[in-house]
Amino acid sequence: MAAGETIVDVVSDAPWLPAGGRAETVRSRIAPIPAGLVRLLVLDGKRIYCQPRSDSGKIDLPTGSVSVDDPDGSRAAAALAQRVFGEPVHVTPIGFVRNIVPTGADDYLWPTPVAHFTVWTAAGEPCIPGTWIDTSLADNPLESRHWWPLIDERHH
Predict the structure, then answer these.
(1) pLDDT tens digits, residue range 91-130?
(2) pTM for this one?
(3) Contact by Cβ (8 Å): 3, 128
(4) What is the architecture, at CATH level 2, of domain 6-147?
(5) How do the domains of the chain map onto residue ranges?
(6) Contact in structure between 58 and 133 (CB atoms under 8 Å)
(7) What is the distance between the alpha carbons of residues 65 and 138, in angstroms, rounded to a whole number?
(8) DSSP labels, 45-89
């Protein structure tokens, strides 16, 4: 664990990872390397701005991919925020999910043994279609997301 990191959740033998894979949800203001994806957290009180995932259609934070020449994902996060808000805005990392996968698998497309999926936050009014999810509702669909422990304390 690097300086400034606080592990807030660990899933050993995570069922969505290859055998023996572990997922750690880590609170940190420093974007880790290597970044696989970036997600953008936009808050309005207890509401979170979401869009459907391109792979499953499930509701999630707006997401962007990271190119190999952007190791911590900061440029990808800035581009994602600009797409969501229609103008450049300041983005700040709040944490990440770190996959630790000792041995890859054919259907696991991320770097091994470590890959990071960073959550960034920014303020503004989204200008593209999306859905605001009220996280105070009993049937909050975001509670099952791997990044949820990063913000759960802020909302309850």
Answers:
(1) 999 999 999 999 888 889 888 999 999 999 999 999 999 9
(2) 0.91
(3) no
(4) Alpha-Beta Complex (3.90)
(5) 6-147
(6) no
(7) 31
(8) TTEEEEEE-TTT--EE--EEE--TT-TTSHHHHHHHHHHHHSS--
